[in-house]
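Input record (one chain):
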Amino acid sequence: MKAVHFGAGNIGRGFIGYLLSKSGYEITFVDISDFLVENINNYGEYKVTTLCDEKSEEKVYNVKAVHLNDTAKLEKVIREADLITTSIGANNLKSTGKLLYKLLAKRFKNGNDKLVDIIACENALFATNILKESIIEEADEDFKIDLNEYVGFPNSTVDRIVPNVKMKKEVPIDVAVEDFYEWDIEKNKVKINKDIQGAAYVDNLEPYLERKLFLLNGAHAAVAYIGYIKGYKYIHEAIKDEYIRNIAVGFHKEAVQALSKKHGLHIDDLNDYSKKLIKRFENFYLYDELTRVGRDPMRKLSSKDRLMSPLKLCYELGIECNNILCGVAAGLLFEYSEDENAVKIQESILLKGITKTISNVTGLEESDPLVNMIEKKYEELSKLK
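The corresponding structure, as predicted from the sequence alone:
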């Protein structure tokens, strides 16, 4: 079985590529980085180091890479692929979809009737749907018929922390990861790739997507933003701060109630998951920088992402949301000068004011009561600086 994975970064190599290798796939990474493409092709293997109390090391063998701009090679690997996956960031899904449209059209034109699955492995709700919509945006009916017959589009949720750890590397593409991982895939939309080792195939993905987005990504971002305000550098340092820890735990309590009420999930199961997450935040082996976790606050504060989604759900259900509000407001105070989108938010606050900035970034109407609640929390947290 042949897999093509778009995105040869830490998640691509340390999580998706790692599991696909263990499942016996022949993997070709696709990336825009000359450095990554050259090194993957030069070495053909890399080491995955798991960071926990008992450090372990495993090798991923027989990997190749193709540059995103190498059209001829891209056409070949897509033509032969049994599985296409991505870890490119949700913002890049639409442009990748347009590229895949052209590549799949060539595949179909050549009479290829092999089945293939396309899975977007991103921190976004129903990311594969976003990718599929971009693929079919300009497609004709013949293409859509072929797509429905030969291509599966299962959504998935992925969960593994892969920080930029400074470590001794045998080759430049070695990567370090935490010991926990989870990859849930929509069972009923899979065409052929039904035996990926380490993945769970589920009937209803939405509860898993929102559980992970709210409790891991949301609380993680909140810890990063409040930790940054208070002058910490790493997640494991920030979570030891009693004030920040209480907000993270409170964030979970609020989100757990909302998830249980919306999806009928058992409170005890959600609380167990919450405890595991707090323990993961405490993993000092990761040296996970707050600026990495908090990067691109404009995306993380957007309407359907990790902070606004649980906030809006709690508000709609009449559930207390004070701690989630802290996470949102702290994101607006992420004044990291090396983050382009963090700088844009600060410039907007200066030029347009906090109310209009909240509305523009979160997608809320200025008259929405949540805007006023976020603004009050923003003023409160500003005093921590």
